[in-house]
Design brief:
Length: 573
């Protein structure tokens, strides 16, 4: 009888699972196109990269024909003094960045929260966001010019900061923190607003500044720090590679720059694949840890029902004054940078004899906008279709599905296997890598899922109780509730594609097909067929027309770029 009962229970359980699979069949169907693209351009490259790291890869013999060497590549790599130095530097830079960025964010967020005027708070946070929208290579060029010995001598400072290891590392960390600290600042402000709203809703008198402001801000910044576990072995490659030089390799060479210089550029595929595998494994563990910690400890601090910073009210003249001072100083510094990049270059006449559009043809400038826009459209389709199944808590296979997405999230990009896949499709020296690699931003999927579940989960349950099908719910509830979020994520993805030269530098050798940002980079290095020398005003004019569209998008879509949406950018730093 017991066997009969067990068999009957198993059949009922199986039938229940099959019934739920059929009920939610739409969720399995709509992810197929996105998963096929991910399998081809993300999962297959990382798997082949792992296999390659255990082989002595020989180009003419291919991956499967190359001899197996086991862990020899790893032993050789960890025995390489250059890699050891890069590994140590990466951890030092990352931990220092997290610390400095967190400290700046806490001070600025508490100061801005003290401003009485919501309009002034919104204006301040908009200005604070601007450095995030400036390309890293432009920031690096500006810093290099400002810190050049000839410039420092004008203020009676005889220093070579970019060539002195003891000065270079603090400078690098501070620059990176100032460029990206707007994300934890806005996250902290949203957490403060959410906490105050909860206390006011519960009719609890807000007597403790520590309870209503300091603790929520610290918790949200800790959540930001936890997110950095998923990229613990990665840094801002474009910022570092455009600031460092052989004089400071001992403190500034990171895993990313070492891999690019010693692996990809030198054609040493064994080194590049082994480094890629190490980064993937470490960051996969970090991604899992970050996901679990954020979900269990910080989810409410990041994804809440707050409307922004408008509701923060603090009747304290002392804190309002501090807020005014800090906000003004911070804003003046940023607006000075914006003036230097976007306005000042057009007040100086170039001696090169060339005009702007001779160096950067209009067709190429506009053409890359079209390419990036097309990539964003596909990206939004992938984001929406992959996020929708995660809104169903009892979806069979949901945990396995999340593990697959986290696996892809940890894989990152720029691996040697990814390069070989792109090459096998004949995309070298074409614009297609720029488009295809712009399809994927897996963290966006979790952002959309978390925002929707935190705000509209009850509405989805109501739809289910009323007998509305999943297809109906997708078009009448899910899309209408997340379309602004999707557009905001699309704006950020578009800015990321426009502001990064890495894909262009890796897959293009024909200067006639370089992206606008890659044109700027070749100008700064003095490696260009037009003979434009570094320091020419026309170079900063190129920087201006590259940066301005991103800043315009920030101003137009500022209301939709909430702290929750900006979480999607934490892995790109």
């Amino acid at each position: 009888m017991e066997h009969v009962k067990i068999g009957t229970g198993s059949r009922r359980s199986l039938m229940g699972i099959l019934h739920r699979i059929w009920k939610y069949k739409l969720h399995y169907i709509i992810v197929i196109p996105a998963l096929l693209l991910i399998a081809l351009f993300k999962m297959f490259p990382i798997i082949t990269n792992i296999v390659m790291s255990f082989k002595n890869y020989v180009v003419f013999r291919g991956l499967w024909g190359s001899p197996w060497v086991g862990f020899d590549n790893f032993f050789q790599l960890f025995g390489n003094a250059g890699f050891q130095n890069a590994f140590t530097n990466t951890l030092i830079i990352k931990l220092a960045y997290i610390t400095i960025c967190g400290m700046i964010a806490l001070v600025v967020a508490l100061a801005v929260s003290g401003l009485r005027s919501s309009k002034l708070r919104n204006l301040t946070t908009t200005i604070v966001l601007m450095p995030l929208f400036i390309p890293s290579v432009v920031v690096a060029y500006v810093i290099s010019h400002m810190l050049a010995p000839t410039q420092l001598e004008k203020i009676n400072l005889h220093l070579f900061i970019l060539g002195d290891p003891k000065f270079f590392l603090p400078m690098l960390v501070i620059v990176e923190a100032l460029k990206t600290c707007s994300i934890p600042i806005l996250i902290a402000l949203a957490a403060i607003e959410s906490k105050r709203s909860i206390l006011l809703t519960q009719n609890i008198a807000i007597e403790s500044y520590k309870r209503s402001h300091v603790i929520p801000a610290i918790r949200s910044i800790l959540a930001f720090a936890v997110f950095q576990l998923s990229t613990i072995l990665s840094t801002d490659f474009e910022l570092v590679s455009n600031l460092y030089n052989p004089l400071v390799y001992e403190v500034a060479d990171t895993i990313d720059t070492f891999s690019y210089r010693s692996g990809l550029i030198s054609g040493k595929y064994n080194i590049a694949s082994t480094i890629g595998t190490i980064q993937f494994v470490v960051q996969l563990l970090g991604t899992f840890a970050a996901y679990l910690l954020v979900r269990r400890l910080f989810s409410h601090d990041l994804f809440n029902n707050s409307k922004g910073t408008e509701a923060i009210q603090l009747h304290s003249k002392h804190r309002h004054t501090i807020g005014i001072i800090v906000s003004t100083l911070y804003a003046v510094g940023i607006m000075g940078l914006i003036y230097y990049i976007c306005i000042q270059p057009f007040t100086v006449r170039s001696t090169s004899g060339l005009n702007l559009w001779q160096v950067l043809p209009v067709t190429r400038y506009v053409g890359y906008f079209v390419i990036n826009f097309a990539a964003v459209i596909v990206n939004l389709f992938i984001t929406a279709t992959l996020a929708y199944p995660l809104t169903v808590k009892d979806l069979p296979g949901r945990n396995i599905y999340k593990l697959v997405l986290l696996f892809v999230l940890a894989a990152g990009s720029g691996t040697i296997s990814e390069y070989l896949i792109i090459k096998s499709f004949g995309m070298i020296n074409t614009v297609y890598p720029q488009m295809v690699l712009g399809f994927f931003a897996i963290l966006n999927v979790f952002v959309v899922k978390s925002i929707f579940n935190s705000k509209y989960a009850s509405l989805k349950e109501q739809n289910a109780e009323q007998g509305r099908g999943e297809l109906c719910t997708f078009f009448t509830l899910f899309i209408p509730k997340i379309w602004k979020i999707l557009i905001a994520l699309g704006v950020l993805q578009f800015v990321t594609l426009c502001n990064s030269y890495f894909v262009s530098s890796l897959y293009m050798s024909n200067s006639n097909t370089f992206s606008p940002i890659m044109v700027f980079r070749t100008m700064t290095n003095g490696v260009n067929k037009m003979g434009v020398e570094p320091g020419e005003p026309i170079i900063m004019q190129i920087a201006a027309i590259i940066t301005l569209p991103s800043l315009v998008l920030l101003l137009v879509f500022r209301k939709w770029l909430t702290s929750e949406v900006l979480i999607s950018q934490v892995r790109k730093m």
